[in-house]
Amino acid sequence: MLRIRRLTDYATVILGVLATEPERVHTATALALRTRIGAATASKLLKQLHRAALVTSSRGLHGGYKL
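Now predict its structure.
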């Protein structure tokens, strides 16, 4: 039986949402609301996913994350 941590599960959910619209830029807040994951946790996971080069991020008014 494979056991995964809660944060790994949350990261998979976030990546799944990003995969539904890969060209759209999603904010961390919007992803947190859509996935019902806490905003702080979503931000933390998105930073880790960015460091792992699984998502790209952009700053500014129209910034956010995308695959």
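Strands lie at 56-58, 64-66.
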